[in-house]
Design brief:
The structure is a single chain. With 272 residues, this protein is of the alpha+beta class. The strands form 4 sheets. It has a 4-stranded mixed β-sheet with strand order 4-5-7-6. Strands 1-3-2 form a 3-stranded antiparallel β-sheet, sandwiched between helices. Strand 11 and strand 12 form a beta hairpin.
Length: 272
């Protein structure tokens, strides 16, 4: 059964006409009071009605995304990536998609994620925008980088992490993404098919990892046959080994002590 079309009153029609005639897809509170000759309260109620009806989308407090044409059936649906691109444009923020969306995009995992994880320099916490669930991870600007642009179905580009950065994030942010030891198998498969990616993987580990990431990535790549001269950069960054961490966190820290990398080797490399 088809959902009934939303009935538009004069003010709703004037708002949509105003946006479409001026080719504006973002409207803010305060913009329409002089144009439509209404009060601030009426303007708030107007935006609220259209947002509840699904004809416009609330991006942020007082900021709304408006369709370029009247949505079919009365409700407007757009991709989460498009919403993210426009939200970050409004906030003038830097961001990049990582986590499950990146793991699926790069072919490491075939599970369809129900949330989009976003490293950024503006927002923190979970938020629903236009029917899409986001997890915003606020981080320092120095941890943003190693990205590529993707075209959304609606046009604007969205920022996705590279393959090497996604793998580093899977090791660095393993508690958030629940990716160890699975990510070790992903890295093994990638380096088997793309051995030249080792240099980029090392560079991203040095740039965006912490000491735990350096230890785990260094040991893993040594086990996978990456040349010693390539791994020296990681060893220099680590410096003298004074503490030991489990190779597989969350499991009993029982196993062989690896003094070269500062690890308690409590498991193997899983098959992908």
């Amino acid at each position: 059964m088809k959902a009934p079309k939303t009935k538009l009153g004069p003010l709703e029609m004037q708002l949509l006409s105003y946006a479409q005639m001026r080719r504006k897809d973002i409207l803010a509170l305060g913009e329409l009071t002089p144009v439509l000759g209404i009060t601030s309260k009426q303007e708030r109620e107007l935006f609220s009605r259209l947002s509840r009806a699904g004809m416009i989308i609330r991006l942020n407090k007082g900021v709304y995304l408006v369709p370029p044409h009247m949505p079919a059936g009365g409700r407007w649906s757009v991709s989460g990536y498009y919403l993210l691109a426009r939200l970050m444009e409004v906030l003038k923020g830097r961001y990049q998609i990582s986590g499950p969306s990146a793991f699926q995009f790069h072919g490491f995992d075939d599970q369809v994620p129900n949330r989009i994880f976003v490293y950024n320099d503006r927002l923190f916490g979970e938020r629903e925008v236009g029917g899409t669930q986001f997890v915003f991870i606020k981080t320092a600007a120095k941890r943003l980088g190693s990205t590529r642009n993707l075209k959304t179905p609606e046009g604007p580009d969205v920022v996705m992490v590279t393959k090497s950065r996604a793998l580093v994030d899977a090791v660095y942010d393993w508690p958030r993404f629940n990716t160890l030891p699975r990510a070790y198998g992903w890295i093994k498969a990638v380096l088997k098919s793309e051995p030249a990616l080792a240099d980029k993987l090392i560079a991203d580990t040095l740039q965006y990892g912490n000491k735990g990431t350096l230890k785990r990535m260094g040991y893993l790549m040594a086990q996978l046959g990456v040349a010693e001269d390539q791994l020296k950069k990681i060893k220099r960054r680590l410096g003298p080994i004074r503490s030991f961490i489990p190779w597989i966190p969350g499991q009993a820290a029982k196993g062989t002590i690896n003094r070269e990398w500062g690890l308690i080797v409590n498991g193997g490399i899983p098959q992908r």
